[in-house]
Structure formats: C-alpha cells, structure tokens
TrEMBL record:
Origin species: Pseudazoarcus pumilus
Residues reported to bind substrate: 129, 159, 232-234
Gene Ontology molecular function, alphabetical: serine-type endopeptidase activity
Catalytic residues, chain numbering: 129 (charge relay system), 159 (charge relay system), 234 (charge relay system)
Tree of life domain: Bacteria
Keywords, sorted A to Z: Hydrolase, Protease, Repeat, Serine protease, Signal
Cited Pfam families: PDZ_2 (PF13180), Trypsin_2 (PF13365)
UniProt entry tagged with the keyword Acetylation: no
UniProt record, GO biological process: proteolysis
Residue intervals of the PDZ domain: 278-344
Xref: InterPro entries: Chloro_Bact_Ser_Proteases, PDZ, PDZ_sf, Pept_S1C_Do, Peptidase_S1_PA, Peptidase_S1C
Full protein name: 2-alkenal reductase
Amino acid sequence: MHRLWLIFAQAVTVAVAVLFVLDTLKPGWVNGAPRSAVVTVREAPATRVAASGAGANASYADAAARSMPAVVHVFTRSVVEAPTHPLLDDPLFRRFFGAPPGGGPRQQTSGLGSGVIVSDDGYILTNNHVVEAADQIQVALNDGRKFPARVVGLDPESDLAVLRIDDVDNLPAITFAPQGEPQVGDVVLAIGNPFGVGQTVTMGIVSALGRSRLGINTFEDYIQTDAAINPGNSGGALVDAGGNLVGINTAIYSRSGGSLGIGFAIPARLARGVFDQIVANGQVTRGWIGVELQALTPDLSESFGLDDASGAVIAGVLRGSPAERGGLRPGDVLTSVEDRPVEDPRSVLDSIARLPPGHRARLELLRGGEPIELSVEIDRRPTPGGR
C-alpha cells in the first residue's frame, strides 16, 4: 500500500510540473486562447478627445488645421557689400598679381521669418526685424505657393510690420480671438518656421501677461508663453485652443539660441491697432510731449517729502517741446495723465502715446510737494532715425 501511494504522489508531481511548463511556454494549449502580453494594458478607444475636453489626451489638431494655412514663411533678399581680401589693398601684391575682382555688391537671401495672413485682401502681419533691411520680400504659403510681397508700413517701436501680396485669390486669412486678453494658464499654439525646417506647431500655456522692461522695443506689453519659439518663428502666430490669433511671436529669452521655455508674443489687440493705422495711413502715429522720466524710488520719494512712491519724476524737459510750452519743469512728479494714475515712467509713455496729436492733455503733478494741474498740447512722436 505504501508503494502504491508513493507511485501516485510521484505521478501527480510530474503531471503538475508538465502543466506548469506548458502554461508557461504554450499557454494556448492550456487556456484555449493565446495571451497577448504578460501585463494587461488599457487602450483608449480610437476616438480623438476634443481640445475643450482638456487633459493629457486632448488634441489641438482642429485648431492647428484652422490656423496653419494662414501662417506664411517670409524670405527676404538684400544687397550687401562683399568684403575684399586685405591683400588686395597691398600695392606690391596688386603689381605682381593684378587686381582680381573682389568686393562689390551681392545679393544675400535669408529665410528665417514667418508672417500671418490677417485679411482676404492679402495683408500680412509680421515682425519689423524680419523685413526691415530687405530689398525684396517673398512669402511662401503653407500649400507651396510663393508670391512677391511689398511693405505697406513698418513700426520699429512695436517691432511690427505689414506686408501685402497683391492680386491673389483664395487666401486663407486667420481669425482674431474675441476681444479681451487671454488668461494665464490658457493653452496656446505657436506656429512658424523655426530654423527654416518647415512649418511647425508647438504647444504650451500663457505663462504671464503684460511683460515689459525687457529692453526689446520702446513699447512692450508682451504675452509670455512656454510654447517653444525658436529663430524663424518671429512674425508667426500664437493662437488659442480654437485656432484664433492671440499674438504675434516676437522674441525669446535664451542663452543658447534655442527655446528655454520663455517666449514673448505681441498681443493681438496691440497688433490690430498698429495694423489698422498702417493700412489707413502707412504709418503709426503716437502722442509725445518731450520729457525724460525717472522712476520715483522710495529714496527719491523721501527726499521730495512724499508719503507715496507712486508716480514718475520729470528728469528733463526738451527745449521747445510741448512739455516746456505747457509749463513742466525738471523735478516735477507726474501723478496722473488724463485721470490715469501714473505708476512708473512706462505708464506715462504708454498713456501719452495713446493720445492723438493736437489733443490737450490734463496732467496732474506735484511741485515742491504741492499738487498742481497743467494742460499740455500733444505733439506727434518723432519716428526713430527721423524717418
């Protein structure tokens, strides 16, 4: 009996071992169906989540498809003076070897720039620095068509320019976002032609609003975004999750030349104002009174005997300027322009620039600690370089 029990136990052990081997190496023989993987994974259904759904699986393909056709690649061509070799200036060299042709003008082509078609009539918004030195401009559409473009107007102080391609039908114009600033945290797409590799879309969020004092332009009110902006994206579109224009990509903060997640775009509302003026008048007109301003620091505020450090100190008054004619003096502390409180010199510059030439502006200031009110007639702001 003991012998039979031993044989039975050995047979069961062998059977279990055979089943274990078969289940490991040939699971289909045991379970009747093959197992696709060792770990079961959950696959999402083959449907695209709308961008408005938010989340990691959201797709912005519709927004990209809507806005990409309106973003163009800008080629510029300029005539530059070719350098001559220093040996050509040596009389002994020229005596024995002659004077081979060198130097003289030659054409230089650059393709690192983008633009946005903003009108069915062929008007294109881009950056001033993309086209300011160009003698000839050509734009390439997303569908491969290429057209010559002409400059309608430039605004170096906001770094915006308006181009136009004439007599072209079926142009895909972008739509501007509804009035109002985007909000910090909104998803945005940056569209352009980085490094000339071809049209590219990058995604990020609005990181901050109202960025200024960056030293990029005279008038700064940037949208900051972490959507990758690289050389070649300048002049391209920053769009919202619906594909509507919220900004014109302009600059990046970088130590390497590539994106570090800090990019800047000109808000669409500011770009729209510049665009309307350039189309109507060929240029942008801003107000000016001719003063040099200095920030009112706590130390200066204390020296002036002021309790509040808000305002801007007039450090200088240009001779013959509207400010001098209006009675402003160095040392005055400007506190408001047309009932707009003055926070710093930048706010004064922006407030005056919005006023039309000929308008008499009401300025409130402190002189010797006493409040006074003056009326100054706004003049036209001189263009850079006297143009």
